[in-house]
Amino acid sequence: ANHRRGGDAATPEGLVRAVPAGGAAQLPYPALSLEDDARVKNALEPGMDETILATSPDGSIALTRKLLHCANRDVSNLRSQPSSHLNDEVCNTYLAMLQQRELKKNPNQPKVYFFNTFFYVKLYAHTGKYDFESVRRWFNKLNFSILDCETLVVPIHKKGLHVDHWVSVVINMKGVFLEFLDSGGGDDDDKALENLKRFIVDLHEAEKRLIRPRWTDAGGCLMECRWDIPLQDNKDDCGFFMLTFADFEGLGREFDFNQTHMTFIRRRVIAQILRGKAD
Questions:
Q1: pLDDT higher than 80, residue 75
Q2: Taking Cα atoms as reference points, which of 100, 68, 59, 104 lies closest to residue 87?
Q3: E-only strand ranges, the chain
Q4: pTM for the whole thing?
Q5: Per DSSP, what are the bridge partners of residue 114?
Q6: Which region holds residue 204: left if phi is over 0, alpha if psi is between -120 and 50, else beta?
Q7: Direct distance between the N- and C-terminal alpha carbons of the chain, in angstroms, rounded to an integer
Q8: How do 222-225 and 177-181 pair as beta strands?
Q9: Cα(144)–Cα(95) distance, rounded to whole angstroms?
Q10: In the predicted model, what is the mean pLDDT of the chain?
Q11: pLDDT-based confidence at 160, cuts 50/70/90?
């Protein structure tokens, strides 16, 4: 994807500049159709029941009204609702749809690969120790190697006693650099960049592939936290920022959205899930 580099944007001034100009009227996507809007309204109506309204592309995830309610928030209320944090089911369904869109464009060798939320849990987060063997065969069923992709997008759910936050890492395979994206303006305090760089090196070895020296040379692989990105102004939109970062990576777009678009983006994610296709 074509990105501005961070440069000296790690200053407070840089963080202010990171939020794109423009209000809710300048939507980053086309408005929902009347049909899509009606579907979303029905899905998010009161009553968090177990009615299945959609499934993931491979049918492995059944999305109930209760699960889809993670996109529902009473924006007139200053407090977000308990269900307004993104869940794994909605996240993985949407990321699978982004992968489906990418494979339709490039069926034999996609340019972008979207990991699901359980990958990083297996690699590191579950035990707090790096464990390549737990993901060694993760990609065996693919008819391509992710090492031949241009961009890899890894969602990470930071979850703990006082933490419930979504971030992501974008691995640029062509440019040999990794970027940490956190709409909360946070740092990579859990060393995700180092763990994922190590994963790329180990995967080359496991697949018996030649590796570019920059991946292993000291200082050859750039790893940085990006500050020139849209930032959230609350505690519950991080998951939908993360999904939008992923979507824009797949489209090769600059991150020209901001906090004012989040209510619309939440509804758009659900509309696409109910339709079973990412635009």
A1: no
A2: 68
A3: 52-55, 62-64, 112-114, 151-159, 164-172, 177-181, 222-225
A4: 0.88
A5: 153
A6: alpha
A7: 17
A8: parallel
A9: 18
A10: 86
A11: confident
| CB-CB contact of 229 with 183 (8 Å) | yes
Q: What whole-number percentage of the chain has pLDDT above 70?
A: 86
pLDDT confidence bin for 5, thresholds 50/70/90 = very low
- Cα 279 from Cα 272, distance rounded (Å): 8
Return the C-alpha torsion angle 232, 235, 239, 241, nearest 10.
Answer: 0
Is the per-residue pLDDT at 100 higher than 80? yes
Counting Cβ atoms within 10 Å, is residue 14 exposed (0-12), middle (13-18) or buried (19+)? Answer: middle
- Contact present, 114 and 250 (Cβ < 8 Å): yes
| Residues 55-67: b if buried by 16+ CB within 10 A, e if exposed | ebeeeebebbbbb
For residue 92, give the H/E element and its range: helix 88-105
| Contact call for residues 230 and 251 (beta carbons, < 8 A) | no
Give the closest residue to 43 by CA, choosing from 60, 22, 26, 67. 67
For residue 21 the two structure tokens come to: 């100009």
Residues β-bridged to residue 112: 151
Residue with tokens 């936290």: 225
Element (H, E) at 273: helix 262-275
The pLDDT tens digits for 177-222 are 999 999 999 888 779 999 999 999 999 999 999 999 999 988 899 9
**Under a CB-based contact definition with an 8 Å cutoff, are residues 235 and 36 in contact?**
no
Among residues 277, 270, 269, the alpha carbon closest in space to that of 242 is found at 269
Residue 225: per-residue pLDDT: 94
Above 60 in pLDDT, residue 147? yes
H helix count then E strand count, the chain: 8, 7
Kindly report the length of the chain.
279
